[in-house]
Amino acid sequence: MTHPFDSAIYLDTIDTNTRRGRTHPEWANMVGPFGGITAAVLIRAVETHPDRIGDPLALTVNFAGPIADGDFDIALRAARTNRSNQHWILELSQDGEVKTIATALFGIRRDTWGDTEARPPTVPAPEQIAPSGDQGRVVVWARLYDMRFADGALPGEESQPSPSSTTTLWVRDNAKRTVDYPALAALCDIFYPRVFLRRGAVLPAGTVSLTTYFHADQQQLDSVGDDHVLATAHANRFSNGYFDQSAQVWSRDGVLLATTHQIVYFKG
Amino acid sequence: MTHPFDSAIYLDTIDTNTRRGRTHPEWANMVGPFGGITAAVLIRAVETHPDRIGDPLALTVNFAGPIADGDFDIALRAARTNRSNQHWILELSQDGEVKTIATALFGIRRDTWGDTEARPPTVPAPEQIAPSGDQGRVVVWARLYDMRFADGALPGEESQPSPSSTTTLWVRDNAKRTVDYPALAALCDIFYPRVFLRRGAVLPAGTVSLTTYFHADQQQLDSVGDDHVLATAHANRFSNGYFDQSAQVWSRDGVLLATTHQIVYFKG
């Protein structure tokens, strides 16, 4: 049986620079599909291209308009190929109408000096935190993940505004599909909108632009396997109907797998 | 007399969706022009487009290949226009070869609840710090800015590796041109590469992808005028020839003008 994630990122090749995918009801968000699955599909599209070199280093996805239920086409091309990296432009459309645009940087990783300056938040192990189904009551796709909140769970009906926008959770695919680059791209968008915490309520909100930097190499992804990862996010400023979010995704043994940022539209 | 910044972002209109600019020797970087001036030019290109609505909210620039001295063409189009925001795709090329690709989100700001959760670093006033010309000895364009480092100045010949990648500086255009969105886009790329600090040396390094979220509205930019802004940056992880940087740009009176992130290639 194909895992829901693999079904969702499966693409038909229409021609060298065109892929066709489709939405899946289990990945539904408040409007259209989960942004993370769209990010995953775009990474997958580049991975299927015969000219692709290397692995994902950076991805920016602009959610320009809601993706309707059904088929979508992805037009992609390498705008420039250098010796060790490659710049892609992608456009996802339905019936000729652009829904999502993206740029992706792929590259060949090579051994250099390295260090992780950021530190993961100090939290109990996932086994010591009960899984929460709260987010799954608001959006269908969240039911596909095991989420264990160490900090900043989804506000309930009785919640008050929080002075902090930070959420930290352990998260794992419920069906224990292993983490590869598309899965990591999706995990980077796992957080509900930070404005919910600050306002103590679920409000209309949606990511407009999402940027992810992939730090993990293949070996580090392989080490994660199907284990929980630790995801933490906060906002810097809310103003004029938009806020920004910065987040990190860590492996259990303290490898910074990705850093990721987004700007989110909100009402109220 | 035209200010060097205005000369650098000046664009000829070739047709509705094409602008022509040119490099200027005073904006030269180690290779090609300062990334910040390229970001500024791309914002300016959208601003000159008759279909543009609103002001910059987000910009992602992928520096795909070195821009040679001379003319460049910018092809731009609104991939999608919504009621209150607009998604642009831009490609900068020279002799038909793509050098830079970008996406931009423009939108109309509206009054909502707001709060700044981030806090500016605590530093002495710019008047209490001597301006440093160090960066100007490495790159020509830095001579156009007044830079006063509170933390993490450019390493010198005798420098040791620093355990921290943080740089915090007051910065102002030397000729006191006022801060608008293109100028803010440029200020977001003001930092020399974080790997210099961590390695205690100047090494080959260059930004590959830069994302900026513009938080300031027009009134907040007008309040900055030609004053110093406070810019602070740090890296999260260095590995496999790349590192990421996250940064903030603040006004003197504590308005978070922009948050900005980049992934940077380095050698050694």
Automatic annotation (TrEMBL), chains A, B:
List, alphabetically, the Pfam families matched.
Answer: 4HBT_3, 4HBT_3C
Coiled coil, from the record: none
The Acyl-CoA thioesterase-like C-terminal domain covers: 129-265
User: InterPro entries given for it?
Assistant: ACOT8-like_C, Acyl-CoA_hotdog, HotDog_dom_sf, TesB_ACOT8-like_N
Q: Residues in domain Acyl-CoA thioesterase-like N-terminal HotDog?
A: 25-107
Taxonomic superkingdom: Bacteria
Could you identify this protein by its name?
Acyl-CoA thioesterase
Organism per entry: Mycobacterium numidiamassiliense
* Species classification: Bacteria, Bacillati, Actinomycetota, Actinomycetes, Mycobacteriales
